[in-house]
Design goal:
Number of strands: 8
Shape: globular
Transmembrane segments: 226-242
Distance between the termini: 23 Å
Largest sheet: 6 strands, parallel
Strand order of the largest sheet: 4-3-8-7-5-6
Protein name: Glycosyltransferase
Number of helices: 13
Strand content: 5-15%
Structural class: alpha/beta
Keywords: Glycosyltransferase, Membrane, Transferase, Transmembrane, Transmembrane helix
GO molecular function: hexosyltransferase activity
Order of helices and strands: EEHEHHEHHEHEHEHEHHHHH
Pfam families: Glyco_tran_WecG
């Protein structure tokens, strides 16, 4: 099932179906692109039609962010039952790569976080083949040596950690050049979390959608981004419910969802 939020498609898929879909795609012949929209993505897409088009054209759009769950209740008659973070989805892809004897390519991240993430995965999945590269800043053109390294790696899955928008535009432009890649995904700051460069939120915070608070505590510089996700986005949602003449109905639906899930 898919839900449309601010003209962006978001796919609601169970963990079991997601795992089966990723398995089928990895052993398949068609290139697939996965995006993981959160409230910041939707705000950015409202201002950038090209970015919105990339999100909507992706083969899979996995909701990453508690705000989307409540926005779905407020703005539609549906509910988002499932949420898949970039960190968890990347871990799942690494697991499937090991089971299917496929290679995983990690591209980007800050410092040596990609390399450390590769080491983490190799400890967790001993038979996994993984290549990790931080290319530094990429301007308009993809360096030939980087394209050759990706193509010569034999990788089937490409995870890009360039940050919001940049990673999606990169994949949209360059994925067709990587013949052997079957699944490509933008993972934001997943490398920093998996590598231990930044500590991941405690389980109870992740289960209650409080990753944003944890990131604010460990990275105060993210304050402007947190404001967009936790204040500006909800304001847009509230204004939309008023425009749709469903403000009180939205309050009831969101309240019920909060009680049920928590």
């Amino acid at each position: 099932m898919s839900i449309c939020l601010f003209n962006i498609r978001v796919d609601d898929i169970s963990q079991e179906k997601l795992e089966q879909k990723l398995y089928d795609w990895i052993v398949g012949q068609t290139q697939r692109m996965i995006v993981t929209p959160n409230p910041e993505f939707l705000l950015a897409a409202k201002k950038d039609k090209n970015f919105a088009d990339i999100l909507n054209q992706a083969d899979l759009s996995l909701p990453d962010g508690i705000g989307l769950r409540f926005a779905a209740c407020a703005l539609t008659e549906e509910t988002l039952k499932y949420r898949h973070t970039g960190v968890d989805t990347l871990d799942l892809l690494a697991s499937i790569c090991e089971k299917t004897n496929k290679c995983l390519f990690l591209l980007g991240g800050y410092g040596n976080s990609a390399q450390k993430t590769g080491q983490y995965f190799q400890k967790k999945y001993p038979d996994l083949r993984v290549v990790s590269v931080n290319p530094g800043k990429i301007n308009q053109n993809l360096p030939v040596e980087l394209m050759e390294k990706i193509n010569q790696s034999g990788a089937t899955v490409l995870a890009v950690g360039f940050g919001q928008k940049k990673q999606e535009f990169f994949l949209k432009e360059y994925l067709p050049l990587f013949d052997q890649i079957k699944i490509a995904i933008g993972v934001g700051g997943a490398f920093e979390m998996l590598s231990g460069t930044l500590p991941r939120a405690p389980l109870w915070m992740r289960q209650n959608g409080l990753e944003w608070l944890w990131r604010l505590l460990i990275e105060p510089r993210r304050f402007p981004r947190i404001i967009r996700a936790t204040i500006i986005f909800p304001i847009f949602v509230i204004l939309s419910t008023i425009k749709q003449k469903r403000f009180w109905k939205a309050c009831v639906r969101v309240g019920k969802e909060f009680i049920i899930k928590n």
